[in-house]
Amino acid sequence: MKNRDRRVRTPEEALRKKTRPESIVSTYGYDPQRSEGALVPPIFLSSTFVFSTAEEGERAFKIAYHLTEDSIPVHSPLIYTRLNNPNLEILEERLTLFEPGTEQCAVFSSGMSAIATTILSLVQTGGSVLYSAPVYGGTDYLFNHILPGLGIRTEPFHAGIDPQGIRSALHRILRSTRGACLVFLETPANPTCTLTDIAETRRAIDEVQHGRKQPIYLAVDNTFLGPMWQHPAKLGADLVIYSATKFIGGHSDVVAGAVLGSKKLIADHVKVTRTILGTVPSPFDGYLLLRSLDTLKMRMTSELKNAKHVAEWLAKEPHVESVCYPGLLPEGHPQRTILEKQCVEPGSMVTFYIRGGKKQAFKFLNALKLVKLAVSLGSTKTLAEHPATMTHSDIDPKERLALGIDDRMIRLSIGTEHYKDIIADLDRAFREL
Ligand SMILES: *Cc1c(COP(=O)(O)O)cnc(C)c1O
Known about the structure:
Elements: H1 9-18, H2 21-24, H3 54-64, H4 86-97, E1 104-108, H5 111-122, E2 128-133, H6 137-146, E3 153-158, H7 163-174, E4 181-186, H8 198-209, E5 216-221, H9 226-229, E6 239-243, E7 257-261, H10 263-277, H11 283-293, H12 296-316, E8 320-324, H13 334-342, E9 349-354, H14 358-367, E10 372-373, E11 383-385, H15 397-402, E12 409-413, H16 419-431
Parallel strand pairs: 2-3, 2-4, 4-5, 5-6, 10-11
Antiparallel strand pairs: 1-7, 6-7, 8-9, 9-12, 11-12
Bound molecules: pyridoxal-5'-phosphate.
């Protein structure tokens, strides 16, 4: 196992070019002959890996710590699980199959550690982060309470802003930025499903970047649509970030994260910082995620179909004031134009406003039986939650209301059950109001 030639790369690379990700994902990046013929990669729980000679150990460290001028092999030798591990490397290779326009992947112990490690690897004191709002509650806390304490300036702009607005926000923040700036988009936004135009953001960055030395990076948190329904790197994102806890894991039994981008950004920046912060997942979680990837397309396709049915049904329900689901956007709406340009499908997150207030919302949530009252998303199980008092309760109340996250809002993550049973459960809960 020491030698990374365990993966027969050349024929695989040829196959990769001609084959759809779902057809190759369960075998890619792993040679059974190197593991007693096991079809499924064993779980390599070892924290450390034996060198056959001291010279080999010296070479491994030179490669890992970038201390050599020699050409770096595709796979650096195994040393210690905080640096690299077979399960995590196979997972990283398989995740790149779903992300056209990226070269490498780094996996993490959570979505939050993926976001935090990525930002700390690229933006130092004096630098800045410009972000679309609303963002995930944990990300919002990082941007508002932790990064400013490290001397990193952060500023939000409203998700769905026009390109001119992004340009102005960039000019404004760069006036007081010394060093790198990172533009962070979450699109569709959680929980409002507002879309921000990734390609237009790239164009704005390129225009503003012109003639400046300081780097401006574009990172997209693609957790909400997952790897099937939106490909941010193809639209100009430098980095694609995931909470792998959601669609990638998909069964509500693992917390993990992933970041994809160019070899330079991932190998020279993100992974270097990950090694020092120690934000890697365990080999066992790596194994769980490998298993999940086999069914990624199947699960997401089933969840998408169900979500379309549920969103259409909700739109006609008298207790529902309005539904936020990109698939229901009318022709000609500016958000619909972005959807058609940048998303393969509208996904399986459906948010709606119930008529009445918090009392009605809680009564509805408490009456659900098949649908479980839980945060998180992208699971095979349909989940419901109340953003204002749960996932987004940490956001400044005034700001939260300005973003449309009020007491009437309920967020659903649609699972793989039969859609008629999901609708029957929702219907029963409405009839109990
Ligand atoms: C869940 C989530 C995160 C955080 O991921 P964890 O795996 O819980 O750390 C970040 N961004 C979005 C959009 C999320 O939904």
